[in-house]
Amino acid sequence: MKTPQANIVARVSSTDEGKARIEEMLVIARAEAKEMIEAHRHVVEAPRDALLERDELIGDEILEVITGAASSKSTDGAGSALEMMRSTPEDPIAG
């Protein structure tokens, strides 16, 4: 039994207008992701640096490294990367 929303991606992407809207959403999402990574580069680099020192991170060690990096920068106005990751993004279709 097919639902009314079955294969909605195929239906939306079958028109030029739909393809353009999808491309627009991808461009926006790409720019937002790049901005977040740049703003929180210290959090992205912390696991890399810890791995260079320790060769491996297991279980809670990963979270400790990320939390430590996020909290060390949150005092300078950069905000918490963990809070950023937990926040719900705006609906790109409705927005």
Summarize the structure in words.
By secondary structure, the protein is mostly helical. The chain is built from 5 helices and no strands. Helix 3 packs across helix 4 (60-74). The chain has helices at residues 8-12, 16-39, 41-54, 60-74, 81-86. The model is unreliable at 76-82 (pLDDT under 50). It has 2 domains: 7-39, no CATH class; 41-87, no CATH class.
- Into which percent range does the helicity of residues fall? 55-70%
Strand tally is 0
Supply the helix-strand structural class: mainly alpha
Distance between the termini: 32 Å
Low-confidence stretches: 76-82
| Domains, number | 2
Mean pLDDT: 81
Number of helices: 5
Cα-atom radius of gyration: 19 Å
Largest sheet: none
Strand content: under 5%
**SSE string, helix = H, strand = E?**
HHHHH
Overall geometry = elongated
List keywords for this structure.
95 residues; mainly alpha; 5 helices
Layout of helices and strands:
Layout: H1 8-12, H2 16-39, H3 41-54, H4 60-74, H5 81-86
Compose a concise summary of this entry.
By secondary structure, the protein is mostly helical. 67% of the residues lie in helices and 0% in strands.
